[in-house]
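Students often ask why we bother encoding 3D structure as a string. The short answer is that it lets us treat folding as translation between two languages. Here is a chain of 278 residues written in the first language.
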Amino acid sequence: MHKTLRIALLDMNNNEPNLGMKNLVDLVENFTQTHANEFLIQIFDVRHLYEMPSIEDFDIFISSGGPGNPNLSGLPWEKDFTDFLDNLLLHNQSSPLKKHAFLICHSFQVALIHWKLAKVIERETYSFGILPIYLTRFGKKDWLFENLDQPFYAVDSRSFQCLQPNFRKMKRLDIKILAIERFRAHRNLSRALMAIRFSDEIIGTQFHPEAEAEDVMCKLVDENYKQKLIEKIGLNNYLETLDRADDEDKIKKTQAEILPKFLHNAVNCILQKNDNLL
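And here it is in the second language, the structure alphabet:
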């Protein structure tokens, strides 16, 4: 039976200029053009226009990163978004037709806070770069990362970090930590959470799997952005990021693997379950 698959892209950037949504739209559109099924793609401006998709109206959700403090402060969009997260879980617990979701950076942090799975605190310094991400024993077994190296590399851009996971709650709910940040030998610091599988259908990453190498490179060499970034992260870190931006085995590989594989799996699961229920 023919089925049009519906993908909702949740824009969490609060009307601030960003590459993330452009990269997400490009990646999803490229995926749909290589697939035999028909797709409907719709963007929702969550924080600026208070737009939210209905769980019932879409099959797949991808929620972006965004600026600012992820700790909830009572803004109207926050309740809408956390209700969406809860309704997503409730739907998947009660329906054979599962919904699939990928939460990136700010969305990932809000989910951890709302579900009381970890502490999210401000970093001493801004983290930006194409940095190594280390798979845990669960991540090494997870199909989403099976073609990536240990460590693999991804764009990291954040002022906040997710620490002190609630291991007891995670074990009870069968939630798996899949990846953590690099070990910093010169400082005795906890390694922040970088990827979590909340369920078979819902995953989140602190890093940006949507980042496109050419766009990152163009941003890095823009003179205005370059100077501001060097002030934030230092010249050495800037040069390291510039050197890694075009490597075939770094963000190009990460972008080609993670979100396309998530989409491919989601589409296959939805179509198979739909056929089985006919």
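Translate back mentally: The chain has nine helices and nine strands. Keep this in mind for the problem set.
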